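User: For my dataset I need records formatted as: sequence, then structure tokens, nothing else. Please produce one.
Assistant:
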Amino acid sequence: MKKILIIFSLFIISIITTGAGYVGTLPNIEAEFSYLKKEHSEKTTAPFSVEELDKQNEETLKPIPRDNDNYVDIIIKKDKTTKYLKDVNSIILILEKLRKCLNNEQDIQIFNAISSNLIDHIEYVKQEYKDKPESNYLSYNRLILISNQVRETASFRTQGLMAEKYLPYTSSNNIYTKENLDNKLQNLLTNVNETIFILKNLE
């Protein structure tokens, strides 16, 4: 009987204390781990505030001049290959020789030699970049135009030299007059100057 009472008492106590949890006091462990808290705080504290950083940026960094066309072209948009620039620069040198030749009214041999060299260089650029983004550049298309004009002018001048032997300047069939040749040479000189300007200020 006594044994039954003990079991019954334990049963009642278990029902009463079920879900009550621990009712004692926990030991204070904060002091034990305070060094970890301090170390973590020292590692993650920033040396300056966000406000200070913004202020420093305003004082030291210049705003991007988006309204400056030169900045946009040179710094942001320019994507010309170094090879293309080198090829164009070589052509500029030849064009300057041709300009000097035209200004000094040098003879046909010098003119044709420079013209042939220029046409060859432009043909190389034409074939090298015809299927590449460079073919959309103003400079590229201008080179094609000036090459055609140089070829036509050189042909006209050479044929005119031959025609002098057989056709008098007064002949109605003679288109190779000095006046016509001078007009062509002057027109070529104008376009050579424009092309040099375009190449030196690539789009």
